[in-house]
Amino acid sequence: MRYELIIFDWDGTLMNSVPKIVACMQAAAREAEWEELEVGAIENIIGLGLPEAIATLCPGIDPARAETLRQRYSHHFVVENTTPMPFFDGALNGLSRLRARPGQRLAVATGKSRRGLDRIFRETDSGALFHASRTADETRSKPHPQMLEELLAELEVDVSNAVMVGDTEYDLEMARAIGMDRVGVTYGVHTPARLRQSDPRWVAHSVADLFSWLESA
Question: Against a cut of 0.90, is the pTM above it?
Fold first, then answer.
């Protein structure tokens, strides 16, 4: 087993939540009386913490309107919007197989809030698959590597024995910043060319491809 610890991004890597994120962000922007946000622009910021995402999407936005947009996004995501957020086909089975391997540890590093990740853990009964997790509101947002550093420290794993898996350059760049191996997935939001700029060890084009590589690594 090459990696004692495998760290996964969530949105766009394990769960197909991108359509819901886009719809909720567009609705929130309209209610905050901000200009219409394009789908591609929203997809580009998935993975960042919500404050960082809003600042990137809405340059020059004043603090009060940014807070309105944040609140309305959260409201739509939790209450109003009913867009399904399934795990990608094969992701749960793949995680279960990895979790069953002796000595294998799994973690999550996500741009979600702690409240949001815990809610998803409860709703999908998936929290027990992971030994630890970090969210953007309890540490620094990607691409800063602090959440990875904290996971390594908590689980007492050397960086050479860990790998980060994600669908965005933010995931891969935070791993590269501390010399951690990284794997990109192309079924999320960033293009293969963009992912390869971060010099990943592997680029997977499907969930089956990803877990086949992880299980043989």
Answer: yes
User: What pLDDT shows up at residue 1?
Assistant: 64
Contact between residue 198 and residue 176 where contact means Cβ atoms under 8 Å apart: yes
- Which residues belong to CATH 3.40.50.1000 in the chain? 5-16+86-216
Instruction: Say how far apart CA 18 and CA 81 lie, in whole Å.
Output: 13
Amino acid at 59: P
| 34 has a pLDDT exceeding 80 | yes
Burial label for 100, CB within 10 Å (0-12, 13-18, 19+), is exposed
- pLDDT of 198: 97
3-state SS class at 106: strand
pLDDT at 117: 94
Give the sheet arrangement for strand 162-166, strand by strand: 132-135, 105-110, 5-8, 162-166, 181-185, 202-204
3-state secondary structure at position 181: strand
CATH no. of 5-16+86-216: 3.40.50.1000
Which CATH fold topology does 18-80 show?
A: DNA polymerase; domain 1 (1.10.150)
